[in-house]
Amino acid sequence: MRIQGAAALVTGGSRGLGAALGGALAREGARVAFVARGAAELEAVAQRIRAAGGEAHTLAGDVGDPRAASSLAGAAAALVGPIDLLVHGASTLGPVPLRLLLDTEAAELERALAVNLVGPFRLTRAVAGGMVLRGRGLVVHITSDASVVAYPRWGAYGVSKAAFDQLARVWAAELDGTGVRFLSVDPGEMDTRMHAEAVPEADPATLADPAAVAERIVALIRGSETFTSGARLDASAMVAAP
Ligand SMILES: NC(=O)c1ccc[n+]([C@@H]2O[C@H](COP(=O)([O-])OP(=O)(O)OC[C@H]3O[C@@H](n4cnc5c(N)ncnc54)[C@H](OP(=O)(O)O)[C@@H]3O)[C@@H](O)[C@H]2O)c1
């Protein structure tokens, strides 16, 4: 898809991959609306982008809040125009320290599903109708290898990401032929707050820089028409485009 001039809505935009990806999209000329709960952190990201000449807007909100989706979608469209690109980057690990399913409360699983699955579903529903009417749009699910590998202690997160992958596939099948496309992208292990919370003993030097991963994902977005809609891609296996 053409990123220059596109209207993008990026959740999880206040740090880590979402901040880097939104910044990379803005550098390529997209108008970007960022969502996260922490307004101050979000505004700092947007100010850095604006200082570099990009267009960035902030919307503080919790994607796990059932009332948030329609207001976030409406506000984003008012700020950047009808959404061409929706990136679901916000995510929760569930209970930390990560724990076995036997030690996981049902409410903790429900919260992981609310943020990682149901919230994105609501937001896509709020945006995809307009995309169908315009005959174009791309929705990117940021997933994880925990969606396909049954890592002990990653149960709430892994279950939510597995369903999230399937959600992208079913959206893709149902909207086939409309011009609205879906991709799931596994970014691989990155040096972010989420990773530090999940695996505090990890050596950051062994983890990817989210900025480098963001460049690879921008390349995937640019070439998104070459992939089957609903495909699950591994960003760590890709080479960044020039
Ligand atoms: N880091 C890794 O190694 C790794 C590996 C595989 C997949 N991923 C995936 O990559 C994505 C980005 O992760 P990251 O490592 O960059 O995490 P991160 O640095 O912790 O950033 C997470 C972002 O999501 C926002 N967020 C969290 N809960 C939210 C909620 N309920 N509503 C709105 N925003 C929320 C956070 O802001 P607030 O806290 O202010 O809301 C923050 O902007 C996630 O989908 C994650 O599952 C990461």
What is this entry, summarized?
The chain is of the alpha/beta class. The chain has 7 helices and 7 strands.
SSE diagram, text form:
Layout: E1 7-11, H1 16-27, E2 31-36, H2 39-51, E3 55-60, H3 68-80, E4 85-88, H4 106-134, E5 137-142, H5 155-174, E6 180-186, H6 193-198, H7 210-222, E7 231-234
Parallel strand pairs: 1-2, 1-4, 2-3, 4-5, 5-6, 6-7
Helix pairs in contact: 1-2, 1-7, 3-4, 4-5
Bound molecules: NADP nicotinamide-adenine-dinucleotide phosphate.
Residues 11-18, 35-38, 41, 62-64, 89-92, 115, 142, 144, 187, 189-190, 192-195, 210 line the site of NADP nicotinamide-adenine-dinucleotide phosphate (NAP).
Mind explaining what this structure looks like?
With 242 residues, the chain is of the alpha/beta class. The protein has one domain: Rossmann fold, CATH 3.40.50. It has 7 helices and 7 strands; from the N terminus they run βαβαβαβαβαβααβ. The protein has helices at residues 16-27, 39-51, 68-80, 106-134, 155-174, 193-198, 210-222, and strands at 7-11, 31-36, 55-60, 85-88, 137-142, 180-186, 231-234. The chain has a 7-stranded parallel beta sheet, sandwiched between helices. Strand 5, helix 5 and strand 6 form a beta-alpha-beta unit. Residues 11-18, 35-38, 41, 62-64, 89-92, 115, 142, 144, 187, 189-190, 192-195, 210 line the site of NADP nicotinamide-adenine-dinucleotide phosphate. NADP nicotinamide-adenine-dinucleotide phosphate binds at residues 11-18, 35-38, 41, 62-64, 89-92, 115, 142, 144, 187, 189-190, 192-195, 210.
The percent of residues in helical segments reads 40-55%
User: What is the beta-strand fraction?
Assistant: 15-25%
Our Rg estimate from Cα atoms comes to 17 Å
- Terminal CA distance reads 16 Å
For the sheet with most strands, the description reads: 7 strands, parallel
Mean pLDDT: 97
Structure classification = alpha/beta
Structural shape: globular
The helix tally amounts to 7
What's the CATH H-level superfamily name?
NAD(P)-binding Rossmann-like Domain
Total tally of structural domains? 1
Looking at the structure, the CATH topology is Rossmann fold
Order of helices and strands: EHEHEHEHEHEHHE
Trace the largest sheet across and list its strands.
Answer: 3-2-1-4-5-6-7
**Second rung of CATH, namely the architecture:** 3-Layer(aba) Sandwich
What is the strand tally?
A: 7
What is the CATH class name?
Alpha Beta
* Small ligands present: NADP nicotinamide-adenine-dinucleotide phosphate
Model regions low in confidence, pLDDT < 50 over at least 5 residues: none
